[in-house]
Specification:
With about 425 residues, this protein is mainly α. The protein is about 75% helix and about 0% strand. The protein contains 14 helices and no strands.
Length: about 425
């Protein structure tokens, strides 16, 4: 529209100069007609702006119909300001076509996105049906989170007694903790604990299942049996599989164990898990994240090995007994029995590895928060604790630790068995 008015004014000047008043009246008339055309003919198209294609098409319709405002045409016969009516309808139709085209493009994009989403969902479902590795990891992780959260108050008390020492009873510790820190004190460090326990338990259960499969394959090969022959593992083999599974899992997530200990012992010092990580590195360097790793790996072999061995050996024996009593029909193990077996396995495992657990936690806090560095290595810590505090100090905190471990391990195995059934997993 602007270009047309400019051309008109230019033509007027070429034909001869008119009086100023006459020119102003003509310009005002043209401007008024332009505004009227914009508001009247394009009102139905608002709030969208007309495209150049739409204007060109309406001009063409106006030229064909022979209707122009004040017969304002270019030298090529094209209307400068077409009338409303049929030309306006054509413009609206043209604009609708443009909008419809844009709508179709949008529908096409949505359709492509929906197709891609459905393809990804189907692909994930197909992968998940055969992803036993991921399923074992998820089952173990869920079992760890549920069990640790359930026994977090007892875990806090056990850690405090192992590190700080003292002769206060478990109930005395719980009462003091509640009075000083409230309910939140029972769950301090639980976020870091779950962050550690989820991958630890996931890797433990997965690695345990994989080690058992490898042992079964080895026994089949060494005995010259077929690939589908049934082979049973004895308790020692399950102990070995569980021990190595525990060492692998602990070595992978050990820095989180250190951070959990810091958050439990000094809850007001660090704002969160990230702050505790940075605090340990700033105070003692990156090596602080692996303080006490030696005794941890040594302790994990009997701890996890004994736990898995006792639980699975007892579970298989009871299942076989129940099956015999029911004329060979397989019977699912009752939840209360699984809870009891897990509790028994956890108590035995905690008792066998508790001295190493005490040494590990003593080494973790050295040089942090003003604590002196007293021991150079695991053996020095063992002898130092015994010489200064007596042999009984190596079992300090065993009571609350077992009280936490007994229900915690039972809950973990119940949850793990439930997840195995949910994911349709089986063990050897």
């Amino acid at each position: 529209m602007t270009t047309s008015i400019t051309e008109l004014c230019t033509n007027s000047r070429l034909q001869g100069r008119r009086p100023r008043g006459s020119f102003n009246k003509s310009a005002a008339l043209i401007l008024l007609l332009a505004i009227t055309r914009t508001v009247g003919s394009d009102a139905g198209a608002l709030p969208f702006t007309r495209s150049a294609h739409s204007i060109a098409k309406s001009n063409h319709e106006a030229l064909v119909s022979g209707t122009c405002v004040a017969n304002l045409k270019k030298s090529n016969g094209q209307c400068l300001i077409p009338r409303g009516g049929s030309s306006a309808a054509a413009a609206s139709a043209s604009e609708s076509a443009v909008l419809s085209s844009e709508s179709l493009k949008m529908v096409g994009l949505v359709s492509v996105f929906a197709t891609l989403r459905d393809s990804v969902a189907v692909g994930f479902q197909e992968w998940w049906r055969t992803a036993d590795t991921a399923k074992f990891l998820v089952a173990g992780a869920v079992a760890g989170i549920v069990s640790r959260t359930a026994v977090s108050p007892l875990e806090v008390i056990a850690t405090a007694q192992m590190v700080r020492g003292g002769n206060k009873s478990m109930f005395g510790e719980l009462s003091h903790l509640f009075k000083s820190e409230g309910v939140n004190g029972f769950f301090k460090g639980n976020g870091a604990n779950c962050l550690k326990v989820a991958p630890t338990r996931g890797v433990q259960f997965f690695a345990f299942e994989q080690f058992k499969l490898k042992l079964v394959e080895y026994k089949r090969t060494s005995m010259g049996l077929d690939e589908d022959a049934v082979v049973h593992l004895n308790p020692i083999e399950r102990l070995i599989a569980g021990g190595f599974a525990g060492m692998i899992a602990s070595s992978m997530v050990y820095p989180i164990e250190v951070v959990k200990t810091m958050l439990t012992m000094y809850p007001g010092k660090y704002a969160g898990i990230g702050a505790a990580f940075r605090g340990v590195i700033n105070e003692v360097g990156p090596k602080g994240l692996y303080a006490g790793l030696g005794p941890t790996l040594i302790a994990m072999f009997p701890y996890v090995g004994v736990e898995f061995m006792i639980y699975e050996t007892a579970k298989i024996a009871i299942e076989q007994f129940l099956q015999t009593e029911n004329d060979g029909v397989a019977v699912a193990l009752p939840i209360i029995i699984s809870l009891g077996l897990g509790a028994m396995a956890g108590a035995a495992a905690q008792t066998s590895a508790h001295p190493l657990d005490v040494v590990r936690k003593r080494l973790q806090i050295q040089g942090i928060n003003g604590n002196p560095v007293l021991y150079k290595n695991t053996f020095a810590c063992f002898s130092g604790v015994i010489n200064k505090e007596g042999f009984g100090a190596l079992y300090r905190g065993l009571g609350p630790a077992c009280v936490a471990t007994i229900p915690g391990t039972g809950i973990a195995y119940i949850t793990y068995e439930f997840m195995k059934k949910y994911f349709e997993l089986s063990s050897v």
